Amino acid sequence: MTDLPIILLAAGASSRMRGTDKLLEIVDGQPLLRRQAARARGVTTGPVLVALPPPPHPRYAALSGLDVKPIPVPDASEGMNASLRQAFAALPPDAPAAMLMLADLPELTERDLNVVAQAVDLTSETLIWRGSTEDDKPGHPIVFTAALFPAFANLTGDGGGREVVAQAGTRVQLVPLPGQHARLDLDTPEDWAAWRAGR
């Protein structure tokens, strides 16, 4: 699916960073948010929707010049499900599926996104295709078929869409990605320091 819409979740408060913004941490010479948005843009001709805190916010400047659509989330403080409600509602009405990814997974590569996108088979019974770690732990990105889109409209709290994944039951296909690419997030200054030391 070369025109798969991609939703990038980037509206969280970064509260565990003690005053700095993890999505604006510099990785490979650019803010992490811009780097991950560019990776999403590189794998699809479809729209890239970025869920963001309400403006004004420095994250908007980090995306300047990129062909992505900011989706302000007025109630972002509620939790991740507020972002999912807003972003899924903003998808093109004819989209047969959409990819969801978190902005704070620094090891997730363009190749990883492509591997998951290429696993999608809309003629199958599968409803979700999901990146996993090398030891089979489910992570991101996640592709949802359009049959599941309505389920996002009523989500509340900070479940991160787990309720929708549960609805799919056994109709979920894990797509192995290298190492811990699918799950490694960096939430604290100590996480960032350890990750940088290991690069």
From TrEMBL:
<protein>
    <submittedName>
        <fullName>Molybdopterin-guanine dinucleotide biosynthesis protein A</fullName>
    </submittedName>
</protein>
<dbReference type="InterPro" id="IPR025877">
    <property type="entry name" value="MobA-like_NTP_Trfase"/>
</dbReference>
<dbReference type="Pfam" id="PF12804">
    <property type="entry name" value="NTP_transf_3"/>
</dbReference>
<keyword id="KW-0460">Magnesium</keyword>
<dbReference type="GO" id="GO:0016779">
    <property type="term" value="F:nucleotidyltransferase activity"/>
</dbReference>
<dbReference type="InterPro" id="IPR029044">
    <property type="entry name" value="Nucleotide-diphossugar_trans"/>
</dbReference>
<feature type="domain" description="MobA-like NTP transferase">
    <location>
        <begin position="7"/>
        <end position="168"/>
    </location>
</feature>
